[in-house]
UniProtKB/TrEMBL annotation:
GO terms for biological process: intracellular protein transport; toll-like receptor 3 signaling pathway; toll-like receptor 7 signaling pathway; toll-like receptor 9 signaling pathway; toll-like receptor signaling pathway. This is Unc-93 homolog B1, TLR signaling regulator. InterPro entries: MFS_trans_sf, UNC93B1. Keywords: Membrane, Transmembrane, Transmembrane helix. PANTHER family: PROTEIN UNC-93 HOMOLOG B1. It is a multi-pass membrane protein. One of its GO terms (cellular component) is membrane. The chain crosses the membrane at residues 66-87, 117-136, 143-161, 167-189, 221-242, 296-316, 347-368, 380-402, 407-427, 439-457, 478-498, 504-523. It is found in: Membrane. It comes from the Eukaryota. It comes from Sander lucioperca. GO terms for molecular function: Toll-like receptor binding.
Length: 588
């Protein structure tokens, strides 16, 4: 018995190894408890997570994205027009030279091709009102800008092979793209201002529910973004002179040869420069040099396309773009014409026309009939460069509308241009190549002041349209289409009047400016008197929700109810099945 008791005591002291299965079960239970605790800790409320702070960071990134979109659209448009105007200027000067035409393209008739090319650029946009809104709504604002920049790049590429069947069709394509491109840009910049307001005030109830913005809510951002766009875009006049300054100027004849038969300049002349010599080049540029210049311009045109494609975000949410298209293409076609019933747009039409007049007069009328006629062709680049710098710098003055009334910009620019037009009506002289440098300073001052008026006019009109229709985001493309269509009409008129006397051109400009100021005053007076304006009703979006008839929908509902009752009677073991006309269509 003692031995057995000792064995028992000894057995109690020794650790008996349990079976392996028991150990694994214990470990699994412990691991499951640990994993469940880790999951609960991960899914539970985080002490370091601040929902309000994360939301604030998210909308800050959204605001930075809007600023990036504005800068990208501005730089892209500036590059497109730098390339377009620089190439067109160099091309027209080369084709004007009789030696260049006879030696390189004797049997092509480049002079006739240039006339038809300019006709394509200037005449085609007058039908832009018919297709611009349809294109913008079909493609979207961003993709319309991208496609238009591609058409400008196509125009550059056709200059590698200068033929009638390359230059003229590409010029017509540019004429087709001008109004949609500018309408998309105006719409895009204004939409970015609206989006920026929404991202700043994301906690407001009307923003969260995507309702119409309060009146005047985003005017501040419209002023800033439109000013920034014009500051950057007007630099295109500066960069467009690089091919002229660094390439073509080295091949120009001296002023005594070019201006030998010119007897008068300024207000006394008719046409552009009567008596201007048809041989302006001392020797012809090498073909390889011209190909290199065109290749550089082509590279920048592709860069602009990439900027529009990769750096510009969408102007509307996907659901908003679907709604914009879903009102019907017939309604989209008609709405620009119906918007002309709004007296605000009708009374601004003279300003739209004058806006097209004055820019073309600066780069073709004053720069040639006053600048080149007196100073010589080698100073053309300097005149337009000063004009572009002036436009860019003075566009920043429109930021003063943050504190001043909105009429200050338009009336200020109109006052500057009115004084200059009266002065130009009295300014005429006979060219003296030996004394031409003494007129350089006054002409640069005049072109700089004209740039001041252009900056206030162009930026002021864009800001005014954005402020008038800031709360109507579904109408912006129609409004900017009307604006740039009237500008296209003005471009066409300038193309037609090229052979008129200079005093007639200046008188038309002055009369249009005075009429524009009067109409604008009438518009502001009506708005101050709270005269109601007429806006066309935009139809509701017509979404295609279902293809089933009401009878089929009722039949499906009855079948579903019978299936549900049958499943309940069977203890919810059977699936709920919907049948349509005896065939299974879905299982719930």
């Amino acid at each position: 018995m003692e031995a057995s008791d000792d064995e028992l005591v000894g057995g109690a002291d020794e650790l008996v190894e349990p079976p392996n299965g028991v150990i694994n079960e214990l470990l699994n239970v412990g691991q499951e408890d640990n994993m469940q605790g880790e999951v609960e800790e991960f899914l539970g409320p985080q002490a370091e997570y601040n929902e309000e702070e994360e939301e604030r960071k998210y909308y800050r990134r959204k605001r930075l994205g809007v600023i990036k979109n504005v800068l990208a659209a501005s730089v892209g448009a500036m590059i497109v027009y730098s390339v377009y105007m620089g190439l067109l200027q160099m091309q027209l000067i080369l084709h004007y030279d009789m030696t260049y035409r006879e030696v390189k393209y004797s049997n092509l008739g480049l002079e006739d091709i240039d006339r038809k090319m300019l006709m394509g650029i200037n005449v085609t946009p007058i039908i832009g009102l018919l297709y611009t809104p349809v294109l913008i709504r079909f493609l979207g604002t961003k993709w319309m800008m991208f496609l238009a920049s591609g058409i400008y790049a196509l125009f550059v590429s056709t200059n590698y092979w200068e033929r009638y069947y390359t230059l003229v069709p590409s010029a017509v394509a540019i004429g087709v793209a001008i109004v949609p491109f500018w309408a998309s840009l105006g719409n895009y910049i204004t939409r970015m201002a609206q989006q920026y307001y929404e991202y700043v005030n994301y906690k407001e109830e009307h923003v969260q529910e995507q309702k119409k913005l309060p009146k005047g809510a985003c005017h501040r951002y419209i002023i800033i973004f439109q000013s920034v766009f014009n500051i950057i875009f007007h630099l295109s006049f500066v960069f467009a002179q690089f091919p002229m300054r660094f390439v073509l100027n080295h091949y120009l004849n001296d002023n005594q040869h070019i201006l030998f038969n010119v007897n008068s300049c300024g207000a006394n002349i008719s046409g552009v420069i009567p008596g201007f010599n048809t041989t302006v080049l001392t020797n012809l540029p090498r073909s390889m040099l011209l190909i290199q210049v065109e290749s550089v311009l082509m590279g920048f045109a592709f860069l602009a396309m990439i900027i529009f494609l990769l750096l510009c975000g969408a102007a509307y949410r996907p659901t908003e773009e679907i709604d914009l298209r879903s009102i019907g293409w017939g309604n989209i076609f008609q709405l620009p014409f119906k918007h002309l019933r709004d007296y605000r747009l009708r009374l601004l039409c003279p300003f739209f026309i004058y806006s097209g007049f004055e820019v073309l007069f600066a780069v073709s009328g004053f720069s040639l009939s006053y600048g080149v006629c007196i100073l010589g062709l080698d100073k053309l680049w300097l005149l337009i460069l000063v004009y572009g710098l002036s436009c860019s710098i003075f566009s920043s003055l429109c930021l003063g509308l943050l504190r001043l009334p909105r009429w200050v910009c338009l009336m200020g620019g109109a006052a500057v241009h009115a004084v200059l037009l009266v002065a130009l009506l009295c300014f005429s002289l006979c060219p003296h190549p030996d004394k031409s440098t003494q007129y350089l300073g006054p002409l640069l001052v005049i072109i700089a002041l004209w740039g001041l008026g252009t900056a206030l006019n162009k930026t002021g009109v864009s800001i005014l349209l954005g402020m008038l229709y800031a709360e109507e985001k579904e109408r912006l493309d129609f409004v900017y289409t009307i604006y740039h269509w009237w500008q296209a009409i003005a471009i066409f008129i300038v193309y037609l009047w090229s052979n008129l006397p200079m005093r007639a051109k200046l008188s038309i400009l002055l009369a249009t400016l005075l009429l524009a100021c009067y109409c604008y005053w009438v518009m502001e007076r009506r708005l101050a008197s709270k005269v109601p304006f007429r806006l066309p009703r935009i139809p509701r979006p017509r979404h295609k929700v279902t293809n089933h008839s009401p009878a089929q929908i009722v039949s499906h509902c009855q079948t579903y109810l019978r299936s549900a009752m049958s499943a309940l009677e069977n203890g919810l073991d059977a699936p709920l099945t919907i049948y349509s006309e005896g065939e299974r269509s879905d299982v719930i």
